[in-house]
């Protein structure tokens, strides 16, 4: 029996409310020996008060030593084993912009980037161009035509866009063209199996034509492709947990991920204040609320320690408004760690805080990696977060006689 079979058997309805507040990339590292992480540096009186009265721990997104992308990191939070449910980033971006993605379509997440005269990447995110610039460039690329395939392009946000291929004989198992670091040229689209070779050839032609269109558009004078895949079958949260779920996220990719697992997605929110308003406005309509804050991650990826600290403090400032709604369970965590020191996602376990009247309080005095290390939840894999949430909400029956 797998975990979802068990939750299908044991879940029960009640009137409890669960809030999962995700500070993307929450975990960090000290900049120097003996220093503090971003979370430990931040002034977080509200989170610290919750930590003192409740229970903390550390969560492994996938497996020890494995650095997760945002997709696997969030799937784990929602209780889907990321080693079983492998979902391409392109699929999530397409769903996030409300594209009606068919089961045979192939989607790829695109990043505008900056290359020098020799074609070497100098900035993987094209200076984080504005959405206005990114949208204009996507419109220009819609002039691309490739024989034998229907091509769809949608701008996502800032430097991000999505490419969707529709046609016969398209495999969805390809390697990324993003080399993962500046100082290298974009890679050529490459199939991971023979069934995806035609797709690789189509995307190679797409990149060639796009390069001609973009070459006079610095800093966004080239692109890379990531997460090239087809849409997988995945059970909905309503089915496996019996939860009516709502997602409140600013960034399209996270809305796409939520939509993939059957959440109702709130649109039209552009900042944390609007997200909190949407939480209040949807409170009566659902049992589970996924609230996502992106900027703890993006500041870490940019190596901006002090800015990440400020973003964590912004998250802390949202806690009183969430508590006003009296959730039965409030969980605060991240999908992965993004230390400013590394300027990237990392494999380090993620701090997690459970607040509920059913918690067994531990000795934590603040919400930090150090306190979470000795917290009562111990260290556990992210896929067990949802069973813990259901249990604290009184939504799981006893197993066995």
Question: What does this 3D model show about the protein?
Answer:
This protein has 401 residues and is α/β, with parallel strands linked by helices. The protein folds into two domains: 244 residues, Alkaline Phosphatase, subunit A; 138 residues, Alpha-Beta Plaits. The chain has 14 helices and 15 strands. The strands form three sheets. The chain has an eight-stranded mixed beta sheet with strand order 11-10-12-1-13-14-2-15, sandwiched between helices. Strands 3, 4, 5, 6 and 9 form a five-stranded antiparallel beta sheet that branches. Helix 11 packs antiparallel against helix 12. The longest helix has 19 residues. The mean pLDDT is 96.
Alpha-carbon Rg, integer: 21 Å
Q: What's the total count of β strands?
A: 15
State the share of residues found in helices, binned by percent: 25-40%
- What is the name of the CATH class of the largest domain? Alpha Beta
> What is the approximate shape?
globular
What's the main sheet like?
8 strands, mixed
CATH T-level fold name of the largest domain? Alkaline Phosphatase, subunit A
The CATH homologous superfamily of the largest domain: Alkaline Phosphatase, subunit A
First-residue to last-residue Cα separation: 17 Å
The portion of residues forming beta strands comes to 15-25%
Q: Spell the H/E element sequence.
A: HEHHEHHEEHEEEEHEHEHEHEHHEEHEH
Whole-number average pLDDT?
A: 96
Helix/strand-derived class?
alpha/beta
Instruction: Tell me which CATH architecture of the largest domain applies here.
Output: 3-Layer(aba) Sandwich
Outline the low-pLDDT stretches: none
User: Strand order within the widest sheet?
Assistant: 11-10-12-1-13-14-2-15
Number of alpha- plus pi-helical segments: 14
Number of domain units: 2
